[in-house]
């Protein structure tokens, strides 16, 4: 195993910098640190989602996602290093296809609501989108592989689909947006 943290409060960040995995120090407001933080927050929200009642296959998928997000965070913390593999994106594609095939086509926009697990999946989706934007911003400023961006993009899509799946547990459904414009056109 690699280096273990033995001391948490090092006080080395008191000057507004943080250490990366390659031992360089950067400002805590750097694009890289923002991306790392958003990925970490996403992983924490998925951990919260895992506290809910979930089908075993969804739980297993989300645990794997947490490990992949840890790989992604590690990759972001070491410029030029590769930890997140392209097959992680392919695994999300397969899960997306599998779970989406069970769902009826959307006829209307849905609200991020319903069962608590589904609502938490929507929170995860929005944090994944923010993490994706942070990775895109980092990639515009520094050389970055495309896999991290692709993974977050696909993960946010999957979380949307999983929210719909979770809302259907025990006979539930999506919570549909009541568009005034659409209601007027239907009259």
TrEMBL record:
InterPro entries: CblAdoTrfase-like, CblAdoTrfase-like_sf, PduO-typ. Its EC number is 2.5.1.-. GO terms for molecular function: ATP binding; corrinoid adenosyltransferase activity. It catalyses: 2 cob(II)alamin + AH2 + 2 ATP = 2 adenosylcob(III)alamin + 2 triphosphate + A + 2 H(+). Keywords: ATP-binding, Cobalamin biosynthesis, Nucleotide-binding, Transferase. Homotrimer. Belongs to the Cob(I)alamin adenosyltransferase family. This is Cobalamin adenosyltransferase.
